Amino acid sequence: MESEEDDMDCAPVVPNIKRDAPNILITGTPGVGKSTLCKKVAETTGMNWLEISKIAKENNCLEEYDEVYQCPVLDEDKLMDGLEETMCQGGNIVDYHSCEFFPERWFDVVFVLRTDNTTLYDRLIKRGYAGKKLEDNVDCEIFQVVLDEAKNSYKENLIHELSSVTPENLEQNLEKIYLWIQHWFENNQT
Ligand SMILES: Nc1ncnc2c1ncn2[C@@H]1O[C@H](COP(=O)(O)OP(=O)(O)O)[C@@H](O)[C@H]1O
């Protein structure tokens, strides 16, 4: 739940000022196709692609290394503070495999990419995942952990689940996102 104080961070001094462009969150289990999709959206629209894992690494926002899950643990507060100004400006497409710690007010829409487990398994094997890391990520997708996380963190009407199995899906998803962006600008003209 957001605190009142948290709510004020991005709140304009003059009420009802809106962002000039929307902020989009693309989330889903590792390997579902977030980077592939974000890269294309950024190239086509000029939106600012924020790869959270990369940004965290470049800005020393990683704490210790989780040996069990074989991944670094994020210093979420430091990362959020560093991104606040950029997010307040709008026009960002945020790419991360988790979504519950971002401030809800940052996003105008949330797309959760989904695959079937065989597809995800093959993609993660190709990426070199093995053992518990492989198993846990496939389980994460089977049990729709990221989708549930999104549903618990954002208003239901902001969340769109997108199938990301085939190249045709990619094209369809891009179309949906472009249409959504177009509608946002039509509805938010100053
Ligand atoms: N819609 C799709 N159809 C087929 N392959 C895809 C699709 N989206 C992504 N891929 C492939 O799946 C792999 C993982 O995609 P990636 O974008 O790196 O996932 P993520 O960023 O979610 O970890 C890559 O090899 C990519 O080419």
TrEMBL record:
Identify the enzyme class. transferase
Q: Which GO terms describe its molecular function?
A: AMP kinase activity; ATP binding; ATP hydrolysis activity
**Gene3D superfamilies per the record?**
P-loop containing nucleotide triphosphate hydrolases
List the residue ranges of the region (NMPbind): 51-74
Q: What is its EC number?
A: 2.7.4.3
Give me the Gene Ontology terms describing cellular component. Answer: cytoplasm; nucleus
Enumerate the catalysed reactions. ATP + H2O = ADP + phosphate + H(+); AMP + ATP = 2 ADP
The protein's matches in SUPFAM superfamilies, at most eight in alphabetical order, are given as: P-loop containing nucleoside triphosphate hydrolases
Instruction: Return any one Pfam family short name.
Output: AAA_18
Q: Which UniProt keywords apply?
A: ATP-binding, Cytoplasm, Kinase, Nucleotide-binding, Nucleus, Ribosome biogenesis, rRNA processing, Transferase
Q: What is its main location?
A: cytoplasm
Q: Name one GO biological process term.
A: ribosomal small subunit biogenesis
Q: Does the keyword Transmembrane helix apply?
A: no
| Region ranges (LID) | 126-136
* Residues reported to bind ATP: G31, G33, K34, S35, T36, R127
Q: Where does this polypeptide localize?
A: Cytoplasm; Nucleus
Purpose of the protein? Broad-specificity nucleoside monophosphate (NMP) kinase that catalyzes the reversible transfer of the terminal phosphate group between nucleoside triphosphates and monophosphates. Has also ATPase activity. Involved in the late cytoplasmic maturation steps of the 40S ribosomal particles, specifically 18S rRNA maturation. While NMP activity is not required for ribosome maturation, ATPase activity is. Associates transiently with small ribosomal subunit protein uS11. ATP hydrolysis breaks the interaction with uS11.
Describe its assembly: Monomer and homodimer. Interacts with small ribosomal subunit protein uS11. Not a structural component of 43S pre-ribosomes, but transiently interacts with them by binding to uS11.
User: Matching HAMAP family, A to Z?
Assistant: Adenylate_kinase_AK6 (MF_00039)
> Which family is this sequence assigned to?
Belongs to the adenylate kinase family. AK6 subfamily.
Q: What is this protein called?
A: Adenylate kinase isoenzyme 6 homolog
Native organism is Sitophilus oryzae (Rice weevil)
The organism that produces this protein has a lineage beginning with: Eukaryota, Metazoa, Ecdysozoa, Arthropoda, Hexapoda
